[in-house]
Amino acid sequence: MSARGEFSSRLGFILAAAGSAVGLGNIWGFPTQVASNGGAAFVLVYVILAFLLAYPVLMAELIIGRATRANMVDALGKISGSVVGRATGIWGFITVSLILSFYALVAGWMLAYFLQTMAQMLSLDTVSSWLTGDSVTRNILFCAIFLSLTAGIVTGGVSKGIECWSVRLMPTLIIIIVALIVYVTFQAGAIDGWKAYLLPDFSRVLDPALLISAMGQAFFSMSLGVGTMLVYGSYVSKKERLPSLGAYVALVDIGVAILAGMLIIPAMYVALHNGVEIFTESGALIEGDSLIFTVLPSLFETMGGVGVFVAFAFFALMVIAALTSSISMLEVPVAYVVENKGVGRKRAVWLLTLTVFIISSVIALNMSHLFGFVITLTTKYSQPLLGLALCIFVGWVWKRDSILAELKQGNEGAQHSLFWKIWPWYLKFVCPVVIVLMFYLSIA
To answer: Where are the transmembrane segments (predicted)?
Structure first.
């Protein structure tokens, strides 16, 4: 095993990388997009675009990472041979740190609601009310607790920290989702949710709005562009076949997103049956934080005594989903500081965690001005442009012979594979055009 750490097993890598991709966006964003965009028709388009757009970019990150055995800054510097590559890596470093800063605030809310279910079980009404109240103190405190949990895992390194916890958290997440799906399915009103989720409206398949939504969901749900998959790829054994590893990660991510839809949409219609409003004034399904912190808690309250236990399981699920993503985000700047600046891992982790916490606190103190701004800046503008930069570096700058040599590490006959016959030109010509189009349409 190399000094910089390596995943000890294929399963460990798949669960860690899938955990990075499976975040809060999968749980609260994907389901409502499906129900609002033609049901199963959206799922079909999403799955197709996940492999036509997201998978090629995912492979670019994994190949760069394993070939260079380096953090994002040094890796892009090596394959480009220029300061532009390193500057792009620093851009990714800053972007992922900003994403983690607002993500930790949202995850802190999840943690507060999770603890509120315990307070409710113990009839601690004052504590319960404070935990679900929107206060700066609560936001900053639980952000700090969540970041500390993240840092505690990342200090363990690759195999003893990230991998060790990913192989525990991801199966737990899937078990909780499945258990909640089974419970919700037997509630009155759930069948209408299943119809909204699974019955396809194929007349919507070529709707530009649906295509843009599906492309965005496919690209961003796999946490591409900011270096998480690149850094995880740098910890993969040279014996592994990267194309199949990438496919497994994509399949797990897609599978969990679809499972989340099987939980959230029927749950929303159960809430509707129980008298909870699930539609906005425009007639669209409520999504995002209003769904998670208003609609679903109202549903749990209508379930009687069992509601608090359902809420406990649901918010445990949300905390786990947040944690599997946050550890990969923190690892990106940590890898750079450890390898490039020679700082010890433990010190690097806590210094960077403190830095992110300070940024989170500034956002929390200026929520109305900064929260939405940082989200838009990073996910709407920076992330797709970083994905475009990766396509250009791998498709146009990095020598094809070097890429093929890396693929041959795990498969001697890589040059004869279908992947090698399609992927290089596809990443070179198709992906940049699609990403530029998606970027233009999202901001136009």
So the answer is: 12-31, 43-64, 90-116, 136-158, 170-190, 210-233, 245-272, 306-327, 348-375, 381-398, 425-443
Confidence of residue 3 (pLDDT cuts 50, 70, 90): low
Residue 30: name the closest of 281, 219, 310 by CA.
219
Domain range for 271 is 10-443
**Mind giving me the DSSP string for 385-430?**
HHHHHHHHIIIIIS-HHHHHHHHHTT-TTGGGSHHHHHHHHIIIII
Residue 353 has pLDDT above 60, yes or no: yes
Distance of CA 221 to the CA centre of its chain: 5
pLDDT at 2: 39
What's the gap between Cα 422 and its chain centre?
A: 27
Q: Which of these, 394, 425, 420, lies nearest to 58 by C-alpha position?
A: 394
Q: CA-to-CA distance for 314 and 297, rounded, in angstroms?
A: 10
Token pair in block for residue 100: 């983690």
Burial class for 89, CB neighbours closer than 10 Å (0-12, 13-18, 19+): buried
Is 2 among the domain residues?
A: no
Residue 296 and residue 291: Cα distance in Å, rounded?
6
- Residues near 379 by beta carbon (within 8 Å), at least 6 away in sequence: 99, 220
Instruction: Over range 181-201, report the average pLDDT.
Output: 91
d(CA 430, CA 444): 21
Domain of residue 281, CATH code: 1.20.1740.10
- Decide if 365 is inside a domain: yes
Q: 3-state DSSP call for residue 8?
A: coil
pLDDT at 220: 66
Residues 6+ apart with CB under 8 A from 94: none
Which residue type, as a one-letter code, is found at position 355? T
The yes-or-no verdict on residue 11 having pLDDT over 90 is yes
Reference 406, options 420, 388, 418, 386; nearest CA is 420
Task: Collect all residues with Cβ–Cβ distance below 8 Å to 400 and sequence separation of at least 6.
Answer: 424
Tokens of 178: 């499945």
Tell me whether residue 74 is in a domain: yes
- Separation between Cα atoms, residue 124 and residue 439, nearest integer Å: 48
**Domains in the chain, number:** 1
Q: How far is CA 282 from CA 36, 228, 285, 291, in A?
A: 12, 37, 9, 16
Question: Rounded to the nearest 5°, which phi and psi values hold at 22?
Answer: -80, 100
Residue 4 included in any domain: no
Count Cα neighbours of 191 within 13 Å in the Cβ-side half-sphere.
Answer: 2
Residue 160 in tokens? 């003893």
What is the pLDDT confidence band of residue 189, given thresholds at 50, 70 and 90?
Answer: very high
